[in-house]
Design brief:
Elements lengths: L1 E4 L5 H11 L6 H10 L3 E8 L2 E11 L2 E9 L8 H15 L4 E7 L3 H9 L3 E6 L9 E7 L3
Parallel strand pairs: 4-5
Antiparallel strand pairs: 1-2, 2-3, 3-4, 5-7, 6-7
Length: 146
């Protein structure tokens, strides 16, 4: 098991996972922009036996880190891999002395909300009609020592 920086060569697999896992998946161009043109972005993949099974995206903004995406292949869900990605993101944020980590999550995504709460994220606001299908999002924040 290893976590490493995402590369353009990884995007075929990443886009496959996006389409399988998300209602509004990012396309290859979205990820290329993040990897090549967004100096605040950091995207990381989780590999098991040289197979990409998950990934996480971060934006390093001022005094906070924002989780832009987190995903685990359906065949590997429920085995602790999303927790490994979260631990990695939180460790990286603490190393960089950020004050908090935040994210938005669909109000209907009970499994993801439970994961975030397990790591100490608190629901601080509702973003009305945040997603393209009109669904609300919770804004969740975890305060760090930073």
């Amino acid at each position: 098991m290893s976590i490493r920086e995402m590369k353009v060569d990884d995007l075929k697999r990443i886009v496959e996972l996006e389409k399988d896992l998300f209602l509004s998946p990012w396309n290859e161009e979205d990820f290329i922009h993040e990897l090549k043109e967004n100096p605040m972005a950091g995207y990381y993949i989780l590999e098991k036996e040289n197979q990409i099974i998950g990934y996480i995206g971060l934006w390093f903004l001022g005094d906070q880190c924002q989780i832009t995406t987190i995903a685990t292949d359906r065949h590997f869900q429920g085995q602790g891999y999303a927790s490994q990605l979260m631990e990695y993101a939180l460790e990286k944020s603490e190393e960089l002395h950020y004050q908090n980590v935040n994210l938005e999550v669909r109000v209907s995504n009970v499994k993801a909300i439970a994961l975030y709460q397990k790591f100490g994220f608190k629901n601080v606001a509702v973003r009305k009609r945040y997603y393209s299908n009109g669904e609300d999002a919770y804004l969740m924040i975890k305060e760090l020592e930073g």
